[in-house]
Structures are given as C-alpha cells and as structure tokens.
Design brief:
The protein is mainly alpha-helical and 283 residues long. It has seven helices and four strands. The relative contact order is 0.16. One of its GO terms (biological process) is proton motive force-driven plasma membrane ATP synthesis.
Length: 283
C-alpha cells in the first residue's frame, strides 16, 4: 500500500480503502493463493537466506551477520529462561524466538514501497490518477500479519504446542488437579465444601485457555491492519504529509506487537506449566 505515496501525493487524491480480506492472486487447482501468502513466502525465504549467510562460516569471535543473529537469539533465550522454569524454557524457546523474528519481519513489510501497489488486474476506471499510477485491482503483496488467517494459524500452532507442553509437564492427573484441584494449598475438611467452587473455577480456566489463541490472533491482526488502514487514509490528505509521523509510529508498532505476541506466549505457558503450590520442584 505504501507504494501509493508518490502517486497520491502528486494528485492530492484519497487512497483507496484497505480490503479486510486478502486478495486471491491465482489458484493452484482448488487452492487459492492470496497476496498475503506470497508475502509470507517471501519473508520466509529472506529469513532462511539471512540465517544461511550469517551462519555459513561460524567463528569464535562473531562479527557481521553472525554477531547480529547470535545477539538476537541470546537475547530471546535470556528472556524466555528468565520467565519460565528451565525445562519448560527449553521447550518454549524455539517457538518463542521463531514467533518474534518472523512476526517482526512480517510487520516491517507494511512499510516497504510496492507492497500493495504492484500487481495486476484492471485498475479502478473511476480513479482520476493517470493509468500508470493507479493501484492494481489485485496487489501482488500484502503485509502477512494484516491477514487474520496467518495470525490465527500462528495462534493455533501455539495452542497445540502449549497443550502438549502442559500434558508433558503436568501429566493427565496433574493437569486435572491443576484445573479442578483445591487452590491456595487448601487441605483437609475445609476443601470439601469448596469443591464445587473449585470445579466451577476449573471450567472458567478451561474457557480462558480456549480464548487465548483468539486473543493472540485478533490482537496482532487488529493492530497491523489498523496501522495499514490509517496509513492508506493519511496518504490521501495534504499531499501525503500527515502520513510521515505514522511511518515512524508503525516501526514502533511492528516491534511492540512482535514482542507482545512473544511475551503472551510465554505468560500463557507459565500459567499452565507451573507448580506454584508444591513445596518441591516438579520431577
């Protein structure tokens, strides 16, 4: 969408409204391929290339790309291990690090020129811009995290892996006790009349766990899509000048949302993979 900046600024026309649904570029048989999917593949390809170049010739004293990669990985590892038990942190770190790096790069595509303006299809004939400057009907690329399908997919991946970590950590019996057992270390006869309350709290906890992937996906999608839409609108006023501060704001939003998604995955994992009430560590 940002590739419209020069075109809109030269004419003073309002930018088009961003479509909430990712546009289908082409189909592979019954499978539609959207512009957000293509952008996701591009980001993944660049990420693999970046890591390959940075780790091709490893040295004891890192420099260049190797130094940047190691600093990023070590920082994310320290954050994860600082918030989770060591065993759980070893399980969660690869997922958390992947989420942060991938989401950050996907968010940053929102600011690249040509994203949303290069593509094919018949342009809107009512657009007063010259034909060469009109936005195509089907943009080739769309910021991946502005598509709810991607954010929902990542949230589902976390939900499944977190469920497996919880069962592996707690065990089936431990999981049931974690959900429905006495809270606050209550023991003896006092726990009997409170049993119904503990069961009700357990069902509330289950609902909370099921809502978590929805909260993760909607939070990320809503912030990135809203930022994209705001920039599109601002580019249509006063030769695009109001959009300038929003570009800097979007950089902060891109980093913040990647960090928030990663921290929430850690926080949600900590609530299910912990034994706060036990006096001894879990074996």
């Amino acid at each position: 969408m940002k590739g419209l900046f020069l075109a809109v600024a030269s004419s003073g026309q309002k930018a088009p409204v961003l479509n909430p649904a990712a546009e289908v570029v082409f189909s592979l048989g019954p499978i539609p391929i959207t512009n957000s999917m293509i952008a996701t593949w591009v980001v993944a390809g660049l990420l693999f290339l970046f890591i390959r170049l940075g780790t091709r010739k490893l040295t004891l004293v890192p420099s260049g790309l190797q130094n940047l990669i190691e600093a990023c990985v070590e920082g994310l590892e320290a954050m994860t291990k600082g918030l989770l038990e060591p065993k759980v942190a070893n399980w969660a770190f690869p997922v958390v690090a992947t989420f942060f790096i991938f989401i950050l790069l996907c968010n940053m595509t929102d600011l690249l020129p040509g994203v949303g303006s290069i593509g094919w299809g018949v342009p809107d004939p009512s657009n007063p811009l010259p034909a060469a400057l009109r936005e195509t009907a089907v943009p080739l690329l769309r910021p991946p995290t502005s598509d709810a399908n991607l954010t929902g997919g990542m949230a589902l991946v976390f939900f499944l892996t977190n469920t497996w970590w919880t069962i592996r950590y707690q065990g089936p019996k431990g999981l049931l006790l974690h959900l429905f057992g006495p809270k606050g270390g209550l023991r003896g006869w006092i726990a009997i009349p409170l049993a119904l309350i503990f069961v009700a709290v357990g069902f509330i906890e289950i609902i909370s766990i099921l809502i978590r992937p929805v909260a993760l996906s909607v939070r990320l999608y809503g912030n990135i899509f809203a930022g994209e839409a705001v920039l599109d609108v601002m580019l249509g006023y006063l030769w695009g000048l109001p959009a300038v501060p929003f570009y800097f704001l979007e950089v902060l939003v891109a980093v913040a949302q990647a960090m928030v998604f990663s921290l929430l995955t850690i926080a949600f994992t900590a609530t299910t993979c912990s034994h706060i009430e036990e006096a001894h560590p879990h074996k």
